[in-house]
């Protein structure tokens, strides 16, 4: 990679401070999910889509909040919509629209990360909403359900009571929810983050394993989950990345940038990775992502998370920069 493609950390800090200043002045850009929401409060994975996956919606709303967008117009209706559909065991399904009715149609991919994101999201809601009896009950039940997924021998979370293995990316998302640390800790394993690093990092291969399943150590490379897993620690500012975050990011972008920018042609746009490039101050890669993926906006290759990242870039004025010449 040419060094000119990397911008200084000062650029990122300046953008973050600008966003915070606007938010403090009551001028934060409002997240507009027209086409992703309906009158019931549901938020679909895709534009005018027929599927709701709570994981993706929670990921998108939390990312929007983190990057300075005002989500208040959609957050509370969504919270009430999902709360009404929480199962007795505190977990959530995925939903499909039949005519005008949303029905549970699939179980969640993983309970651990979804429960953690729900808990984290609930704690961003207005105090009066958090104090409502139904929300208090939901929070307590979800906390208990999440705690039951800890594997004491390893100090990491398992996918669900049915799938008794741990996933690297799920555990990183659980790690972002600070109260979830306590259940993993004991005298032998006093740090949840250190346990994640110990369980998933392969020092010989110098890479993270996607899962604790033995066969994951020798699977054929795919962008998802393999390459995504390697960049995922940056989405949560994980402090245990060997060699430091900056050097690790540079290696990843050198090895996988071209592969990432091509994903929109047959998979998804992967705007979550663009948010990492933004944090790293790599504005050239951010612009290239936008240039490559914007024609696919609102298509089947574009998710609600991609929409959030697009609107973040628009709010920061980054989309108005000159087109990059080398986006291969």
Q: Please state the CA-atom Rg, rounded to the nearest Å.
A: 20 Å
**How far is the first residue's CA from the last residue's CA?**
11 Å
Low-confidence stretches: 1-25
Overall geometric form: globular
Oligomeric category:
single chain
Could you state the order of secondary-structure elements as H and E?
A: HEHHEEHHHEEHHEEHHHHH
Global mean pLDDT: 91
Helix proportion range: 40-55%
Tally of helical segments = 13
Question: What fraction strand?
Answer: 5-15%
| Order of strands across the main sheet | 1-2-3
Q: What structural class do you assign from the helix and strand content?
A: mainly alpha
What's the number of extended β-strand segments?
Answer: 7
Q: Quick one: biggest sheet?
A: 3 strands, antiparallel
Task: Describe it.
- With 328 residues, this protein is mainly α.
- It is 45% helix and 7% strand.
- The protein has helices at residues 9-24, 54-66, 72-83, 111-122, 127-130, 133-147, 168-175, 192-200, 223-231, 245-262, 271-279, 283-293, 304-316, and strands spanning 51-52, 93-98, 101-107, 150-151, 156-157, 201-202, 207-208.
- The strands form three sheets. It has a three-stranded antiparallel sheet with strand order 1-2-3. Strands 4-5 form a two-stranded antiparallel ribbon. Strands 6-7 form a two-stranded antiparallel ribbon.
- The radius of gyration is 20 Å and the shape is globular.
- Residues 1-25 have low confidence and may be disordered.
What's the helix and strand layout?
Layout: H1 9-24, E1 51-52, H2 54-66, H3 72-83, E2 93-98, E3 101-107, H4 111-122, H5 127-130, H6 133-147, E4 150-151, E5 156-157, H7 168-175, H8 192-200, E6 201-202, E7 207-208, H9 223-231, H10 245-262, H11 271-279, H12 283-293, H13 304-316
Antiparallel strand pairs: 1-2, 2-3, 4-5, 6-7
Helix pairs in contact: 2-4, 2-13, 4-6, 4-7, 7-8, 9-10, 11-12, 11-13
